[in-house]
Amino acid sequence: MDSSSDAIPHALVVTPSGQGHVVGAMLLSQSLAALGFKVSFIYFSSDYARLKERNSLVLPSPDLRGGTLSTTSTCCAGERCSNGYGSKNTAIVISDVIEVGNSAPTVDCNGSGGGDGGRGKIFIYVVEDALQPGDIDKRFFVTPAMKENLFNLIVELRELGHPPTCLISDTFIPWTLDVTQRAGIPRIELWTSNAMAHLLISNLDVLYSEGIFPEKGSPTQWKGETPLMLTHIPGLPPFSSDLIAKDLRFADSKNHIIQFFSKVASCVKCGERVLINSLLELEPDAFKSFEVQGIPSYAIGPLPTQMKLEDNVQTECLSWLDLQAESSVIYVAFGSSAKLSVEEIQELSVGLEASGNSFLWVIREDSVTMEELPQVLPEGFLERTRGTGMIISWAPQVKVLAHKAVGGFLSHCGWNSTVESLWAGVPLLCCPRFAEQRVNSHYLCNVWGAGLELGRTKTGGLDRSFVEGGVKALLHEEEGHNARSKAQEIMRLIEKTSQQGGQSFSNLQKLYDDMRALCSKPSK
């Protein structure tokens, strides 16, 4: 380790596939770089190729992009290495990514360092994963190549004079614990959602070992008629089992997802600390539960959202918003994973039109293409709503939510969307679908008061009358006005905690101080 007084902590940040995970990891990377970390952000090759093909790569802000820390492969950017996972030269330096908007690399290509030695910069690496085509879409799938090549990258960076101080791993990559133990560096866990959601999955094995799950009843119902009140998590008050996703409540204990979360739970107890993209002030009970269980947890969020997938922003929707009255538009979007069925699109469209409100609606191309849309929507819908409604396939969401014309957000309640809305002080009409979204909706509607719950059918489907009533309530009725006041109150709280002296800022500063002290220790 570098024993000099100006040692720069170097964090490797590793994330699984999934836009929410990647965005959360990059947001953290930017915050770390702003504190003075040198950050190496890791994509696995299959994810990188897929995101690049979709033009959906998550990149750091141009002023934070570093040059090349090493040239460990002669492969072209984005191409698969052919030298096998047992070889050391399997990490691809993506110069077309890290040098965009950066006229001169911060660190020399031969790794000798220069100038600031990479302080405050983010370097992108793509590590060969050797995934076969049939395995790419499998959840939580890991190959020997992932472990071996990530370890080899750590070794190579050491040889080049850029030793990683720590590895920051998303919760959903528990196998990185093996890599860090082998490499002799701490594993720091990143949870990109709220603390309560982490507690639910990391204590899931208790519910199965005690025979409470699998739950009895019908998994087709959106909400159980007699949900269980769960008391198994130390430090948490009783809560309804409806907060847990159905695929976790009704599965067999030998299901691969349940087995996976059991591994997650064991890794949590072995890590150096858990970084959680939430606020202590919003979840005091959940953070207390981590403390009771002896797990070091640090609230570091919500992480600032000024991160840009949005370099090439389509401005047509923003120009359209400029023409709308203040707080008059309902923004409708269901994230990067949830696909809307034709029936759901039809129910939403009828409900939105009946509400009489202006709307900006994102329908992703993998649900329905813009060419197919006229055949899917009710006859005459586009003509009747011309001027009051706009449908697009993608939106610069952070900028949309910050626009004064937006009065509410009809959302699936993914955590990133939830945080982005609260950063802007915009209340939500909550329509959770899977994963931890029920927890997020519960917090918004029942705890924080910054959202209203959208009514659903018994099986969780969308209904036009619920959509109409929900939009009207959020934008025009007292409960909606109260939700807006609460959202703006939380916005001010977020601003306070993320500034110097705030709890989340202080926890990130502690991470920097601890890692700087670690990398300043002389090697044994």
UniProtKB/TrEMBL annotation:
InterPro entries in the cross-refs: UDP_glucos_trans, UDP_glycos_trans_CS
Pfam families recorded: UDPGT
UniProt keyword annotations, A-Z: Glycosyltransferase, Transferase
This enzyme's EC code(s): 2.4.1.-
Recorded superkingdom: Eukaryota
GO function term, MF aspect, one: UDP-glycosyltransferase activity
Record PROSITE patterns: UDPGT (PS00375)
Family: Belongs to the UDP-glycosyltransferase family.
The name this protein goes by in its record: Glycosyltransferase
Protein species of origin: Adiantum capillus-veneris
